[in-house]
Every structure is written in structure tokens, then in C-alpha cells.
């Protein structure tokens, strides 16, 4: 195929795949949780039905909020979709094909997009002038503060060997080329799994199913939105979850197609789906096995990931 | 425009000062004329700087030697790449401040127009002179002029707290200047003249220890001006006291003069002629940067006064700039990959200097509009301003997104470059040094998260929610000229954020002047002006296109808006916020103290907050009639460091007071003894 | 099994040991700390078995089995019995703040790497990260003993530190001579028994924990 065309197609296809599969992953996790809790649970496709329902509903807006409140959901969705273009799903050419990639961004820009989405959501939460939004925003920004350094350390522990922070190049290095999967990788993976729980807002950091003000971080910020705006924010949350799952796979289980042959692509896609399934099972099991931590015990929990990621970097360098 | 440009610029500032003296009774006309002169001077400075920066990489400096004005020194004015870059920063912020100033000062009638105009013109003129100084005497004179002029601006509103703030500022600034004087005089004695060129050649012959001692003395002196922790205590008191456009200049530009001094002394004057700098320089600057960044943002989180919050954020950003400078000092002139990384680090630091001037200036100007409209700066008493002052709110939001280093604005670009320098340098250094650099990167990530939290609080509590006082409920939008100044700085933020490659051209001259070698425009924009590239070794690297990122965000948001939000067939209702069935009041809004509480709890070790709770019960112990809750977060540097120093000085002063006799004969006797000793010691030989 | 493969496996086991050590350090609950210590001992037994298979040293198999029996089953059972008998509150309070513990643990790991690089002259059986990880584990175990209030946590810290010593010995030589291993294990069991008796006696006579004994000073 024409090389300039392929440059544009890969990000588009991979992003579209992530956006479409996002709600499915949430539905899968909900179904698994239900089964583990001896319930039947809603269908796997329920999140899609919820999104369509929200699109058809009207909006109720607080009278203290202004035009800014209406703009935030689409900006958050935009930022999350922009982040989705940065993770490789099944095609990662590695350093050899690096020059052919669009310079869309690296892992730092990914963290930046998520930070922008969080910032805007938190501000919109304060706009309605209620206590729920304020508390949710305050707690979410606090958790973000504890998560950012660990996330950067995890990215750096892998970037040191790969020489770059671009995820599509990192994923293109087969693990064997990076040195085998050693102690440093294990520590970084452990840290990243804890961060995955924190960033996707799952137990034990946050409860995604509740609407009590003292137990919600992310949900608290969404409370005042309704209708299509809420649909945008919920879709953004689904996309963020699957982007983070793809991020974990790109860093630690990078079995992606290095060339554009159909055989390699199908293998890459299969590996991605398998990895997504494994991480979804992990999330569902963790959610069903633990209780949500008290908020002021969260720093102690998140410091495990900080220490772990720091040790991963130390093992790499020393 | 070459030499003429310098004279036009200084002449315009001088005209502004003259207007204030001649027309001290013209009232508002003095203000407007003085600010017009300021504007023209800044325009001249801008044109001069741009011409110098784009006019060829290694053009020799413009050299102006004045006839002997002092018996022991020539005054020399030069403008090389580094000076031109900082002059660019000064000019941009001054242009915005000049447009903003007249309307702001008219609304705040606490000071006389003559004093304001004189103060600000001399302030900017002395900053320009510091940059153009080619010899130590001009530098020191202009430095002192800068301090005095800004002192005048700090105390110009005549309140009691302002006077106290001014006093602390003067003490610390003069202590710093004294140290600088020691350094420059030592160098001048070595070189036999005050000229920078002579000093440069003579310093090459210094021994390593002498060089390091001089550098660290200068670092302390300049650090006091820059607001490096623990020398930062004057910043949160002095910056809020000055009028807002002066605060913007002090915070956005004057701190950068200290950075300019560190760069000039560390990488130019005191640097060894060949070979790398002593590693201790780079490590100490890096450590100071990391500590200032974290402490600055932590204390910013606990402030309620909008301007004090912004002042503490300046401490944080100076820390971030010093991280880049430290990396450059650590890796300079080591050959190969290290040189490219040093250039990247210095480019990141200089770009952050420009970015910080733009967004901090914008934020201070917005705070000034809020102060003019409501006469309150305490966030807890504001609220709901976004509906009454929409322009100010959106501009403050742009400043907040920029300072939190969020894409697609300019703060993210310089932080991205700093991160890339840190990660590539740690891969290059390996072992313990690499690990220390990674720890600094973790500190930078922590400050980014904390800054975002702080600005969610600042923007949300001030502009959103319901008004919490009558002043806030009756606020009006600022005057158009004030908004124009703010829009200018916001445009700079957005443009540098979306198209940073074009700003790399301006960074070529200073980086190549200080480090030699390849300029940033060949390193960072090697793949064209729309793509930023950071690479450690050939063949690998990370490329990001901020333009593509911004376009992507815009396109997706637009598509989502059209598809999802725009159809008007869906019902839209406005209802009061649900507050558990009670009528919503402003007391339901989340306060700033509550917002910052979790972080106050987590970082209690660094804050050591004090909490007092007093309860008064009624007839039975189960009925509370009054509850008094007070929480204090005191600057720890103040408590542990300065209070002890102050106590010590007071003790010594008391001891001397008890021993002083009060008779004039004793004092003349002291003079006689000192003269005798001096003659004995120095008069021989 | 070749020595290279064994070295790689022990490297990975070292990472798991570090992970369990961090969880013990940051544990807020006695049960979590004891179970994690048991899991850590499983990993030590695995490491012993791997090294035994690679070097065909039957002593190592014995040590692995001993560790498995004693530290995975006997000692945790003992500790749980003390908890049940004492009916103590199983929340752990740290004596120094969590952030400080974190920073000290990170510093200990860096110190361990620095030490091991200056001990290069030692001929190592398992090269790479194993020696510094072993030293770090030992020191962090002592940190756990130092920074927690309950006496039971001090025992858990002692056992975890023990694991670190075993791992260091495996890295340097092929494990210590069998007689020393058995002797150390017996000492540890004896120490655990004595500690258990003392804690129970103290609790039944003065009704408070060992950590409160600092009120007895003059």
C-alpha cells in the first residue's frame, strides 16, 4: 500500500478500535464481577445501550453553572481520544520503522492528555456549586498527585532501555531485544498494576458503582452532568480504561506486528485481545476480592507503587 | 537597528521617568503618558531583541563604550544572544503591563501617579540595563536600581503590611547584592578591570576551589533574588503588595534577572576555558531546583490569597527552570551525546523562562482585574465571578492550564523538554548519578500534579460556584485596555503551545553563545518546525508534534459537539443544584481550605499544620453554643531558619545596646582606634 | 538446568521477594503481613530448589524443604495462635510516618547496590542483582522491626530479614553449610517460641503490649 496512506491509516484504525471496544471491556468486567458475586448481571453490551440512552435524553443543568460547563464534556472526550491515538494496539514498527510514524506524541503526552481531562472534569465539578462535586474534585486531584510520580517512574524504567518515550517504538522492541523480562520489569509491572487500579478508578481506590458522596472520587465529579454531556464523560471513562490496558500491554507484553503483513497483524490483534481479556479478569477479581480503602489510607497504598517503580528504575540503572 | 535601538529604548524609559517628574500634577494624564513611554520603550526593546536573535547565530556583540563617568570604570553596554533573549522576555511582559497599567492604576487611587510612573519606568529601564551590562559596575548599579525601583512599587500603596513586606524585601535583596558585590569585586581585582571580557579571560586562570567558592557565593546572592528555597520568604510578601502589573513584572521578569545572572556567571564568566564545569555546580543547582519546586507548590496549595498563591508558584517555576539549568551545567562540554543533552536542557530552561513570564504575567493581571472589581483577594470570599466577568475567567483558565503544564499550551512544551533531558541524561549517566536525575524527574512529576490541583482550587473557588460576599456578587468586568494586555499574553501562551518549533529559532543564539556547539533549532526541530524532537543518541529519539496534538483535540471536540451536544431537539432545563432538599446557598460551596485538606494531611510532615479547636458549651455539655476552629500553616523556613537568625541578631543587638555608653567621647575614641589599627595593618610596605 | 537459566530465574524470584517485602513494609494489617511473609518464604524455598537443581547440591534441597515447612507453615501458625490467644487489635501503627519509611527503604536499596559494587571481589555464584537484593531484604527486614509498634510485627520483620540472609547466602556461595542452616532455623524457631511466651505472659500480667513498656522508664 502507499506508504503515506498507511501512515495515516494505522493511527485511525487503532484509535477507532479502542473507542469501539472501550465500553465492551467495561461490560465484560461488570459481567465478571456479577458472576463472582453470584449474580447474573447485565449483558456485556449494556454500556453501549446506556450510552445510546444518554444520547437521546435531554439535559438538566444547574443554574449556577455557565457556558463553560457545557463545553467541558466534549473537551474531555477530545483529550481522551487524542490519548487513544498514542498507544499501539496491534501494529508497532519499532525503531526500524520509526521515521514512518506520525509524530503524534509519546507516553508523556499521554499522561498530559489524561491530566488535562482530569483538570477540566474537576473544574466543571466545582462549577455547579455543590458539595459533592467539590469533594470529588478535591479527592481526585489528590489521588492524581500521588499517581503521577509513580507513572512517570514506570515510563522511565522502560524508556531507559528503549532510548525513547514513544510507546509505538517501545512496543516494537521485542522483549528479548530489551534484555529478558527481568527483576526490573516485574517491579515496574507490579507498580503499574496498582496504578491501573488507581487511574481507572476501581476498588480499592475508588468505587465505580456507587453514588454515595463519601465513597466516590470519579463519580462525584460526574454527578451534575446529564444527557449527552454525561454520555461524553462516560465514554471518555471507558476509553481511558482501555487505553490504560493497552498502555500496560505496550510496556510489558509487547507482542505487536512489526511489519504490515496480514499474518503478523492478525497475530498482533489476537495478542492484544488476549492481553485485554487477562487484564479485565485481573481487574474484576481485584474488585471482587477487596473492599474500598478509606481515603486517608490511600497514600499508604499508593506509596507501594511509588517505592516499587523507584526500585524498578534503580535496578535498571545500578 | 543596532546601537540606535539601545538608545531609543533607554530614551523612551527615561522620557517616561521625566514625564513623572515634570508632570507630577497632571493627574491621570501623567499615568497615560508615562505608560505610553513605557510601551514605546518596550516596543523598541522587542524589535532590538528580535533583530539580534534572528540576525545570524554568532554575530559579535554590540559594544558601546561610554566615556569615563567614574574614575575607576568604563561603562560598557553589550547585547549578546543571552541578553537579547531575556530582553525579549522583558519587552513582551512590559508591553502587556503598559497597556494594562493606566486603567488599573486609575481604579486604585492609593498612590500618586508620579510615583507609580517613575517607579515602573525606572524598574524596567534598570532591568534592561542589567541585561545590557558589559561590565561589572553597570551590572551592579542597574541591579541596585532594579531593587530600589521595585521597593518603591511595593510600598506605593501605603498600607502597613506593604511597608513590612517592603522592609523584608529590602533586607534580603541587599544581602544578596552584597554577596554579588563581593564576587564581582574579587573578579575585578583578579582581572584588573571591571570589563566582562577581561574578567572572562582572567577567570580562566583561577583555581578550581576559588572558582567554586565564587560561584556558590554568587548562587546564594542571586538565589535570594530568584526566590530559591530557603531564601524565598520575601517573595510571598512583596509580590502581592505591589500593584498587579508591577507584580506581573516582578514575578515574571525580575526573577528571570537572577536566572540570567546565574547563567552569565556559571556558564560564561566563571566557566573554565575548556572542559566541563565542576560537577558540584550542576548537582547543587539541580538539588536547589527540585527542592524549590516542591516546597513552592506545596505552600502555594495552602494559600487563600490569590496573589500569594501566584507568588509561591513563582518559587515553584524558578525551581523548574533551575532543574534545566542544572542539567545543562552538569553535562556541558563533556563531548558527544552530553553536549546535545546540555543544549536541550538549557533550551528547556530558557523556554520555560519565556513561558513562565507569559502565563505568570497573565495570571497576575487577571488577579489585578479581580482585585479592581471586588477589592478582595481572599478566595474564600469570592466565587461566581465567571458569570459576571467572563473574559477574565476564560483568560485565567488559559493561564491556569498553561501553568499546570497541560497540553496543548506552552507550559507542557517546556516541561516535556525538561523531562526528555532528564530521562536521556539518566540513560547517559547510568549508576548513582542517573538515579539521582530520575529522582529529580519524579519530583518534577509531583510538582506538576500539585500545581494542577492548586489551580483547580484557585480557578474553581474564585470564579465558579456562587458568590460568597456582596463584593463578589456585584463585580463588573475589567476595562477593555486591561483585557487587551491580558489577551496579548494569552495569545503568546497559545501560540508557543501550538507552534513551539518557531520559538526554537529564538533559543539558538543564547544556547550557542553559552554552550557552543549545535543550536536547538537543529536539535529539537530537526524534523521541521511543527515537530519537536528529543534524542540522546542518533537513531533513537522521541518526536511530538504539538500542532498535530492541538488540531486533533480541536477536531475531535468539534465533531463530538456537532454530533452530540448541538441538536436542539433535546430538552434543556435549568434547575437549582441538588443540595439534599435544602435551598442552595453559597455556604454549600466547597471552600478552598477544604479542597486543600487532603494534601495538607498527606504532606503533614512538611507543613506541620497547627490546629486549635475551642468549644463553648451551653447549659448542658451536649449543646455547643460556639465552636472556634483555627488552622495555621506557617512557612517552615520562616520558623526554623529566619526566626532563629532574627533571634540571634536581636540578642547581639541587645548585648551591644547594654554596653553602649551614649557619650560622644567614647564613639570618637572608637574611630581613633580603628584608624590607628588600619594604618598599622595596611600602611606598611 | 543450566546455571544461566537458574541465574535468570533467581533474578525474577528476587523481584518477587522485593515486592513482598514492600507489601510487608506498607502493610496496615497483621494478617496481611504474616501471610505475605509466608508467601515470601515460599519464594525463598523456590529459589533454593532452583539453585539445588542447577548445582546438583542436595543440601540446598534440604534447606528448601526446611524453609517450606518451618517458615511457611509452622511459624505463621505460631504467630496466628498468639494473635488469637491475645485477642489483640490487628491494626499496625507505624512509629515513623509512612513517607519516611518509604524514603528510608529506597535509601537502603541504593546503599545495598553501592555496597555490592564495592564487594565485587567476592566470587558470586549468582551474579547480577541477587546480592544487592539480598542485602536490601535483610536491612529492610530490620527496618520493619524498628518502625512498627506491635511486638508481633517485630517477629515478622525478623523472619523477613532471615529470608534476606538466606538469599544473600545463596547468591554468594551455594547456600551456607547445612549444619549452619539448620542451626539458624532452630535459633529462629526458639526465638519465636520465647517471644510468643513473653508476649503472652506480659499481656496476661500487666495487660498491655510490649510496645508500651517504654512507660516503665524512670
Task: Describe, in plain words, how this protein is organized in 3D.
- The complex is a heterotrimer of chains A (318), B (685) and C (218).
- Chain A is an all-alpha fold and 318 residues long.
- Chain A is 68% helix and 1% strand.
- Chain A has one domain (3-317).
- The longest helix of chain A is centred in the first third of the chain and has 34 residues, at 3-36.
- The model of chain A has no long low-confidence stretch (mean pLDDT 87).
- With 685 residues, chain B is mostly helical.
- Among the domains of chain B are: 278-561, no CATH class; 596-632, no CATH class; 636-682.
- In chain B, 70% of the residues lie in helices and 5% in strands.
- Chain B has a two-stranded antiparallel sheet. In chain B, strands 3-4 form a two-stranded antiparallel sheet.
- In chain B, a hairpin with a 7-residue loop joins strand 3 and strand 4.
- In chain B, helix 1 runs antiparallel to helix 4 (113-132), helix 3 crosses helix 20 (504-515) and helix 6 crosses helix 7.
- The N and C termini of chain B lie far apart (53 Å).
- The longest helix of chain C has 29 residues, at 58-86.
- With 218 residues, chain C is mainly alpha-helical.
- Chain C is globular, with a radius of gyration of 18 Å.
- In chain C, helix 1 runs parallel beside helix 5, helix 2 (30-55) packs antiparallel against helix 3 (58-86) and helix 2 (30-55) runs parallel beside helix 6.
- Chains in contact: A-B, A-C, B-C.
- Chains A and B meet through strand 1, helix 3, helix 4, helix 5 and helix 9 of A and helix 15, helix 16, helix 17, strand 4 and helix 22 of B.
- Strand 1 (59-62) of chain A pairs parallel with strand 5 (572-575) of chain B.
Short description:
Chain B is mainly alpha-helical.
Produce the secondary structure layout:
The complex is a heterotrimer of chains A (318), B (685) and C (218).
Chain A: H1 3-36, H2 46-56, E1 59-62, H3 67-84, H4 107-127, H5 131-162, H6 167-170, H7 183-199, H8 218-222, H9 227-252, H10 262-289, H11 298-317
Helix pairs in contact in A: 1-9, 1-10, 2-9, 3-4, 3-9, 4-5, 5-7, 5-11, 7-9, 7-11, 9-10
Chain B: H1 3-22, H2 28-54, E1 62-65, E2 76-79, H3 81-107, H4 113-132, H5 136-154, H6 160-191, H7 196-203, H8 208-226, H9 235-241, H10 244-269, H11 279-301, H12 306-331, H13 337-374, H14 385-388, H15 390-403, H16 410-429, H17 431-463, H18 470-473, H19 480-498, H20 504-515, H21 520-523, E3 532-534, E4 542-544, H22 546-565, E5 572-575, H23 592-602, H24 604-607, E6 610-617, E7 624-632, H25 636-659, H26 664-682
Antiparallel strand pairs in B: 1-2, 3-4, 6-7
Chain C: H1 3-25, H2 30-55, H3 58-86, H4 98-118, H5 130-147, H6 151-172, H7 178-206
Helix pairs in contact in C: 1-2, 1-5, 2-3, 2-6, 3-7, 4-5, 5-6, 6-7
Amino acid at each position: 500500500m502507499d506508504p503515506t496512506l498507511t501512515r495515516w491509516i494505522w493511527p485511525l484504525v487503532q484509535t477507532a478500535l479502542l473507542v469501539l471496544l472501550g465500553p465492551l471491556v467495561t461490560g465484560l468486567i461488570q459481567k465478571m464481577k456479577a458472576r463472582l458475586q453470584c449474580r447474573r448481571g447485565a449483558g456485556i453490551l449494556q454500556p453501549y445501550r446506556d450510552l445510546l440512552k444518554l444520547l437521546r435524553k435531554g439535559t438538566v443543568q444547574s443554574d449556577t453553572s455557565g457556558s463553560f460547563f457545557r463545553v467541558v464534556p466534549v473537551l474531555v472526550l477530545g483529550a481522551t481520544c487524542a490519548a487513544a491515538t498514542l498507544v499501539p494496539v496491534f501494529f508497532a514498527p519499532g525503531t526500524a520503522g520509526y521515521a514512518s510514524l506520525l509524530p503524534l506524541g509519546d507516553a508523556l503526552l499521554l499522561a498530559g492528555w489524561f491530566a488535562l481531562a482530569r483538570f477540566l472534569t474537576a473544574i466543571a465539578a466545582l462549577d455547579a456549586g455543590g458539595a459533592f462535586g467539590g469533594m470529588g474534585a478535591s479527592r481526585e486531584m489528590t489521588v492524581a498527585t500521588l499517581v503521577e510520580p509513580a507513572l512517570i517512574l514506570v515510563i522511565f524504567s522502560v524508556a531507559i532501555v528503549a532510548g525513547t518515550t514513544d510507546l509505538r517504538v517501545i512496543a516494537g522492541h521485542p522483549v528479548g531485544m530489551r534484555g529478558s523480562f527481568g527483576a526490573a520489569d516485574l517491579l515496574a509491572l507490579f507498580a503499574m498494576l496498582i496504578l491501573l487500579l488507581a487511574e481507572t478508578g476501581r476498588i480499592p481506590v475508588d468505587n465505580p458503582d456507587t453514588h454515595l458522596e463519601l465513597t466516590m472520587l470519579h463519580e462525584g465529579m460526574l454527578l451534575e452532568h446529564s444527557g449527552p454531556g454525561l454520555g461524553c464523560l462516560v465514554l471518555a471513562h471507558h476509553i481511558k480504561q482501555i487505553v490504560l490496558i493497552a498502555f500496560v500491554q505496550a510496556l510489558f507484553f509487547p507482542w505487536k506486528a512489526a511489519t504490515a503483513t496480514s499474518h503478523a497483524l492478525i497475530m498482533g490483534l489476537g495478542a492484544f485481545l488476549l492481553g485485554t481479556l487477562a487484564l479485565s479478569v485481573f481487574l474484576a477479581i481485584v474488585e471482587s476480592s477487596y473492599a474500598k480503602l478509606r481515603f486517608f489510607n490511600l497514600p499508604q497504598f499508593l506509596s507501594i507503587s511509588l517505592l516499587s517503580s523507584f526500585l524498578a528504575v534503580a535496578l535498571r540503572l545500578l | 537597528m543596532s546601537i540606535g535601538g539601545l538608545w531609543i529604548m533607554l530614551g523612551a524609559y527615561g522620557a517616561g521617568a521625566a514625564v513623572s517628574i515634570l508632570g507630577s500634577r497632571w493627574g491621570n494624564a501623567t499615568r497615560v503618558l508615562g505608560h505610553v513611554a513605557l510601551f514605546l520603550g518596550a516596543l523598541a526593546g522587542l524589535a532590538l531583541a528580535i533583530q539580534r536573535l534572528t540576525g545570524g547565530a554568532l554575530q559579535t556583540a554590540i559594544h558601546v563604550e561610554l566615556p569615563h563617568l567614574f574614575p575607576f570604570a568604563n561603562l560598557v553596554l553589550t547585547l549578546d544572544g543571552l541578553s537579547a533573549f531575556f530582553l525579549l522576555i522583558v519587552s513582551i511582559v512590559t508591553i502587556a503591563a503598559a497597556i494594562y497599567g493606566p486603567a488599573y492604576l486609575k481604579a486604585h487611587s492609593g498612590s500618586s501617579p508620579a510615583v507609580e510612573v517613575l517607579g515602573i519606568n525606572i524598574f524596567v529601564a534598570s532591568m534592561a540595563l542589567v541585561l545590557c551590562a558589559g561590565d561589572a559596575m553597570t551590572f551592579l548599579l542597574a541591579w541596585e536600581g532594579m531593587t530600589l525601583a521595585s521597593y518603591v512599587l511595593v510600598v506605593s500603596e501605603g498600607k502597613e503590611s506593604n511597608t513590612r513586606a517592603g522592609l523584608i524585601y529590602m533586607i534580603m535583596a541587599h544581602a544578596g547584592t552584597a554577596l554579588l558585590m563581593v564576587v564581582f569585586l574579587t573578579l575585578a581585582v583578579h582581572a584588573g578591570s571591571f570589563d566582562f571580557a577581561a574578567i572572562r579571560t582572567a577567570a580562566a586562570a583561577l583555581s578550581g576551589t576559588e572558582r567554586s567558592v565564587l560561584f556558590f557565593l554568587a548562587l546564594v546572592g542571586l538565589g535570594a533574588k530568584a526566590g530559591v528555597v530557603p531564601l524565598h520568604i520575601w517573595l510571598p510578601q512583596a509580590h502581592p503588595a505591589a500593584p498587579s502589573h508591577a507584580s506581573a513584572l516582578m514575578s515574571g521578569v525580575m526573577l528571570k534577572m537572577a536566572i540570567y545572572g546565574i547563567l552569565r556567571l556559571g556558564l560564561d564568566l566563571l566557566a573554565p576555558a575548556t572542559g566541563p564545569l565542576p560537577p558540584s555546580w550542576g548537582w547543587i543547582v539541580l538539588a536547589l531546583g527540585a527542592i524549590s519546586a516542591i516546597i513552592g507548590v506545596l505552600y502555594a496549595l495552602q494559600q487563600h490569597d490569590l496573589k500569594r498563591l501566584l507568588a509561591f508558584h513563582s518559587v515553584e517555576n524558578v525551581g523548574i527552570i533551575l532543574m534545566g539549568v542544572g542539567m545543562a551545567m552538569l553535562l556541558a562540554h563533556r563531548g558527544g551525546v552530553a553536549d546535545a543533552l546540555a543544549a536541550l536542557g538549557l533550551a528547556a530552561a530558557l523556554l520555560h523562562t519565556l513561558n513562565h513570564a507569559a502565563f505568570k504575567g497573565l495570571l497576575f493581571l487577571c488577579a489585578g482585574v479581580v482585585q479592581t472589581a471586588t477589592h478582595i483577594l481572599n478566595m474564600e470570599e469570592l466565587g461566581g465571578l465567571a458569570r459576571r466577568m467572563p473574559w477574565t475567567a476564560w483568560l485565567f483558565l488559559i493561564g491556569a492550564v498553561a501553568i499546570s503544564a497541560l497540553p496543548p499550551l506552552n507550559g507542557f512544551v517546556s516541561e516535556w523538554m525538561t523531562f526528555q533531558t532528564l530521562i536521556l541524561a539518566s540513560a547517559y549517566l547510568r549508576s548513582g548519578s542517573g538515579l539521582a536525575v530520575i529522582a529529580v524527574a519524579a519530583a518534577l512529576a509531583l510538582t506538576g500534579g500539585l500545581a494542577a490541583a492548586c489551580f483547580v482550587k484557585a480557578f474553581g473557588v474564585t470564579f465558579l460556584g456562587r458568590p460568597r460576599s456582596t463584593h463578589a456578587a456585584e463585580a463588573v468586568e475589567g476595562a477593555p485596555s486591561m483585557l487587551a494586555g491580558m489577551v496579548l499574553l494569552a495569545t503568546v501562551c497559545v501560540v508557543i503551545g501550538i507552534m513551539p518549533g518557531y520559538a526554537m529559532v529564538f533559543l539558538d543564539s543564547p544556547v550557542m553563545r553559552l554552550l557552543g556547539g549545535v543550536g536547538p533549532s537543529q536539535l529539537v526541530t530537526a524534523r521541521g518546525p511543527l515537530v519537536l524532537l528529543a534524542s540522546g543518541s542518533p537513531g533513537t529519539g522521541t518526536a511530538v508534534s504539538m500542532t498535530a496534538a492541538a488540531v486533533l483535540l480541536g477536531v475531535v471536540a468539534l465533531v463530538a459537539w456537532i454530533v452530540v451536544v448541538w441538536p436542539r431537539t433535546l430538552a434543556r432545563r435549568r434547575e437549582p443544584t441538588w443540595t439534599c432538599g435544602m435551598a442552595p446557598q453559597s455556604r454549600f460551596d466547597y471552600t478552598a481550605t477544604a479542597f486543600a485538606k487532603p494534601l495538607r494531611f498527606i504532606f503533614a510532615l512538611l507543613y506541620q499544620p497547627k490546629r486549635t479547636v475551642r468549644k463553648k458549651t451551653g447549659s448542658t455539655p451536649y449543646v455547643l453554643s460556639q465552636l472556634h476552629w483555627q488552622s495555621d500553616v506557617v512557612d517552615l523556613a520562616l520558623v526554623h531558619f529566619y526566626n532563629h537568625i532574627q533571634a540571634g541578631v536581636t540578642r547581639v543587638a541587645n548585648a551591644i545596646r547594654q554596653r553602649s555608653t551614649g557619650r560622644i567621647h567614647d564613639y570618637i575614641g572608637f574611630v581613633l582606634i580603628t584608624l590607628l589599627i588600619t594604618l598599622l595593618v595596611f600602611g606598611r610596605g | 538446568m543450566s546455571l544461566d537459566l537458574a541465574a535468570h530465574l533467581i533474578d525474577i524470584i528476587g523481584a518477587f521477594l522485593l515486592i513482598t517485602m514492600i507489601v510487608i513494609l506498607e502493610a496496615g494489617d497483621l494478617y496481611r503481613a504474616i501471610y505475605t511473609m509466608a508467601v515470601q518464604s515460599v519464594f525463598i524455598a523456590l529459589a533454593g530448589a532452583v539453585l539445588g537443581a542447577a548445582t546438583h547440591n542436595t543440601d540446598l534441597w534440604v534447606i528448601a524443604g526446611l524453609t517450606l515447612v518451618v517458615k511457611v507453615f509452622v511459624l505463621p501458625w505460631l504467630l496466628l495462635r498468639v494473635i488469637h490467644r491475645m485477642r489483640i487489635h490487628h491494626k499496625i501503627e507505624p512509629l515513623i510516618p509512612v513517607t519516611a519509611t518509604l524514603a528510608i527503604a529506597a535509601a537502603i536499596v541504593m546503599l545495598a547496590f553501592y555496597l555490592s559494587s564495592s564487594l565485587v571481589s567476592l566470587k558470586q555464584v549468582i551474579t547480577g542483582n541477587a546480592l544487592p537484593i539480598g542485602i536490601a531484604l535483610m536491612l529492610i527486614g530490620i527496618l520493619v522491626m524498628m518502625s512498627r509498634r506491635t511486638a508481633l510485627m517485630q517477629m515478622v520483620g525478623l523472619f523477613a530479614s532471615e529470608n534476606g540472609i538466606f538469599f544473600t547466602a545463596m547468591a554468594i556461595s551455594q547456600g551456607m553449610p547445612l549444619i549452619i542452616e539448620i542451626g539458624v532455623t532452630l535459633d529462629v524457631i526458639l526465638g519465636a517460641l520465647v517471644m510468643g511466651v513473653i508476649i503472652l505472659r506480659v499481656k496476661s500480667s500487666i495487660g498491655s503490649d510490649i510496645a508500651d513498656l517504654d512507660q516503665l522508664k524512670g
